[in-house]
Design a protein that fits this description.
This protein is an alpha/beta fold. Helix content is 34%, strand content 25%. It has a nine-stranded mixed beta sheet with strand order 23-22-21-20-14-19-18-15-25, sandwiched between helices. Strands 7, 8, 9, 10, 11, 12, 13 and 24 form an eight-stranded mixed beta sheet that branches. Strands 1, 2, 3, 4, 5 and 6 form a six-stranded antiparallel beta sheet that branches.
Length: 629
């Protein structure tokens, strides 16, 4: 029986992925791989026995992955096809293209193959009757809940932006799926008004929109019907043809039908020869128990590596830049600890109320809607230890360590509020309970402030303050890092007793008007010794002459490419809920009445007392209200 041995330069993690993919007995059950052993059999017309994969040290200490397999049939007729197919697998599991592989057979001969170029990644080499043929890949993106606001305002525009910038594969199809009775033209008309073109591109926008809309289709069906998804699968296959079909489902639907859609899409609409992935929108439950139940339901039909739990704040430019700022600048990493940082603040505020979505919001509240996911995820990224690499699992491992090191929240370290009606400038702004979709006696918080602590060596004793609210005086999302005062400062008399005036502060403004700036002390020009506070700033609009992509664009592209770094793993979710669930249950059990604050104010007074408890002043309440950059 002919045998072959294939040597390729490969990292350990890549080798593990390659081994898993090769040894898969059923391609449909190996969603993380483009090629399983059954796929290799199809491409090469050879039969592969169980594959042995090992790591060897080669010339100059380089690591090589050695793949051994035995085949039946004539080896020479398909050996080149095997090389190409394996090389594509290698690239799809993390290998680099600028390498050359060697394949040795048991007769002592050896053959080499040129690398697969990046342009050919969408092509899988195969053979038919001894003649090499090419099978292309395609991506089918199905937006489940296509008639909803999120799909219309965010998902379809993000997909078009990716298409407009040339980021989507050559062959792709977009399908909308919902219960609403529509057809293809109705869908296209619905989303056409939300599509915009990048200002820094020169292609004709109208032409691009027409081309994109021609690839958009619609299928009406029930979320709990396998038959509906089976019909959808037939339509998808008509567009996929004979290509390797990869399928992405975006669940833009209420969480109570997540599991139904996961079941139907998995059983009736999974790809037969490519990967299948599912993006799940928050909320991921209401507490630890409901979240765990949802996770169990999803994992009944999907593997963990098929589930992409999306938190769009992790896709924002300044959040992604957080680790770059810290780990690629020597000036910051040595300061990133309790020795130099006095407190860290995570602030989220909106200058409008719940107009239009009070019914949804009243079931969750500001803590579940913003703090337990958006702000906590940013905190974990901020506070984590340096990861081993930029691999998704290495980063998420460090985030989980942070979350598991945090103290469980209690009511002594939390303030909740709710906005009341207010008249300003002759304009009447309604109270939260005046929203027609909200019960008159609702005590759901529209504002919350919390003090959290991380009990590890780096952050012991440092208060991490969170504040999130609606109907406040401004719209912003930012991280504020307040450093300790200079010990034995020679200029302390110049600042008096105002410690905040004497210390440095790093501000990372996530939105709007993205910026990073550092507040420093300096001397005012002149003959006297008068000190002033100034900003060293990176203002994105001034520095970069291009539009910042929307967070959904980044996350959708990552899901298509299989990059999981900015998505939430199930154990992250468990650890996050473990922090907040006892607090939420206590608030609901005791029916804690929120402190009222006027619409358009800075929030309840209790938030200032909470900060003062830890000798902290909220950065966004500073007398330097402009914080101009």
């Amino acid at each position: 029986m002919p045998r072959f041995k294939w040597w390729i330069p490969m990292e350990q993690a890549t080798m593990a992925s390659c081994a898993q993919a090769l040894s898969s007995s059923s391609l449909s059950r190996s969603p993380g791989a483009l090629l399983g052993s059954s796929r290799l059999t199809l491409c090469t017309r050879g039969v592969f026995s169980p594959v042995c994969v090992s790591m060897r040290k080669g010339f100059r200490g380089r690591s090589f992955c050695v793949i051994r397999a035995s085949v039946t049939g004539q080896l020479n007729q398909f050996v080149q096809s095997a090389i190409k197919a394996l090389k594509l697998l290698w690239m799809q599991t993390g290998g680099k293209e600028a390498e050359t592989a060697r394949l040795a057979t048991n007769d002592g001969s050896a053959q080499s193959a040129s690398p697969v170029s990046a342009k050919d990644e969408s092509r899988v080499a195969g053979s038919q009757n001894g003649v090499a043929v090419a099978t292309e890949t395609t991506v089918s993106i199905t937006v489940v809940g296509a008639s909803g606001d999120l799909a219309k305002k965010k998902i379809f525009p993000a997909l078009f932006a990716l298409y407009y910038e040339g980021c989507l594969p050559k062959h792709f199809t977009v399908f909308g799926f919902a219960r609403s009775k529509m057809n293809d033209e109705s869908l296209r008309e619905m989303i056409s008004g939300t599509l915009t073109c990048r200002i820094d591109q020169r292609e004709n926008c109208g032409d691009k929109q027409e081309e994109f809309l021609k690839r958009c289709f619609y299928h009406s069906g029930q979320y709990s019907s396998e038959e509906s998804f089976g019909e959808l699968s037939k339509k998808l296959h008509e567009h996929e043809g004979d290509r390797v079909a990869n399928r992405l489902f975006y669940l833009s639907i209420p969480p109570d039908v997540f599991v139904d859609v996961a079941r139907c899409s998995s059983l009736a609409a999974s790809s037969a020869n490519g990967w299948t992935r599912v993006i799940v929108e928050k909320p991921f439950g209401r507490d630890s128990e409901s979240s765990a139940e949802l996770t169990r339901g999803l994992k009944t039909y999907l593997n963990e590596d098929q589930i992409y739990r999306i938190d769009h704040y992790l896709g924002k430019e300044l959040v992604e830049n957080l680790s770059v700022l810290r780990f690629s600048n020597l000036v910051f990493e040595p300061l990133w600890s309790r020795q130099y940082i006095r407190n860290v603040q995570f602030i989220f505020s909106e200058d409008f109320g719940t107009e239009g979505r009070g019914g949804y919001f009243d079931n969750y509240g500001i803590i579940r809607d913003i703090m337990q996911n958006h702000l906590l995820q940013i905190l974990a990224l901020f506070a984590m230890e340096p990861p081993v690499s930029l691999d998704a699992e290495d980063i998420r491992n460090e985030k989980v360590k942070v979350l598991r090191s945090m103290r469980v929240l209690d009511t002594d370290n939390v303030v909740v509020g709710q906005y009341k009606g207010h008249t300003r400038g002759g304009v009447r702004y309604p109270a939260y309970i005046e929203d027609k979709t909200v019960p008159n006696n609702s005590i759901t918080p529209t504002f919350a402030a919390a003090a959290l602590f991380i009990d590890n060596a780096r952050w012991d004793g440092v208060p991490f303050l969170m504040k999130a609210g609606k109907a406040l005086h401004t719209k912003r999302a930012e991280i504020r890092v307040q450093f300790r005062h200079v010990p034995g400062s020679l200029y302390k008399r110049s600042f008096g007793a105002d410690i905040d005036q004497a210390t440095n502060e790093l501000v990372i403004r996530v939105q709007p008007d993205e910026a990073i700036y550092l507040k420093i002390n300096n001397k005012v020009p002149g003959l006297g010794m008068r000190l002033d506070r100034s900003n060293l700033n990176l203002h994105y609009a001034d520095r970069y002459n291009r539009e910042i992509p929307d967070a959904y664009e980044r996350l959708l592209l990552d899901a298509i490419e299989g990059e999981r770094r900015l998505f939430i793993r199930s154990d992250e979710l468990d650890a996050a809920w473990a922090l907040f669930t006892p607090l939420l249950k206590e608030l609901e059990k005791r029916k804690v009445a929120p402190e009222l604050y006027p619409y358009g104010s800075r929030g309840p007074v209790g938030a200032h007392y909470l900060a003062a408890k830890y000798n902290v002043r909220w950065g966004d309440n500073s007398s330097e209200t402009s914080d101009s950059v």
